[in-house]
Specification:
130 residues; alpha/beta; 47% helix; disordered C terminus
Length: 130
């Protein structure tokens, strides 16, 4: 198999749906985040293979909103943002992780993140082999 046929095989498999995409974990940190949380979680449940929510002791409707999306957040007392996110990442089971705050809403164009990153990883694979 030459270089060009390798690329054509990968490209046709990708665009014909023959190649499965990677699994994506999404981590979200919450604390009294009820105001925007439905808008944050709605697109994430569509792109995430695994959704990890870490709450720092919310007293508003954050927990009930999470339960509406069939998620029970893990609790961790707040220390620093970095430590909270590292804790969330430690709970994931996938190699690819998207870290979000509870006020970040993914727009329609960004919902293609799995396709974009997957294509980028294929390009790296093909370039590496050339």
């Amino acid at each position: 198999m030459n270089k060009n046929s390798l690329y054509v095989t990968i490209r046709s498999s990708l665009f014909n749906g023959g190649l499965s995409m990677f699994s994506l974990s999404v981590c979200v940190l919450t604390f009294n985040s009820a105001r925007l949380l439905k808008d944050v979680l709605s697109p994430l449940v569509d792109i995430a293979d695994e959704l990890i929510i870490v709450d720092s002791g919310s007293s508003d409707d954050t927990l009930s909103i999470c339960q509406e999306f069939q998620h029970n957040p893990s609790y961790r007392a707040y220390t620093t943002h970095g430590e909270q996110m590292n804790f969330a990442i430690s709970l994931t089971n996938n190699s690819w992780v998207l870290c979000m705050d509870s006020d970040e809403i993914i727009d329609k164009k960004s919902r293609e993140i799995k396709k974009i990153v997957f294509c980028m990883s294929l390009c790296w694979f093909v370039l590496d082999k050339l």
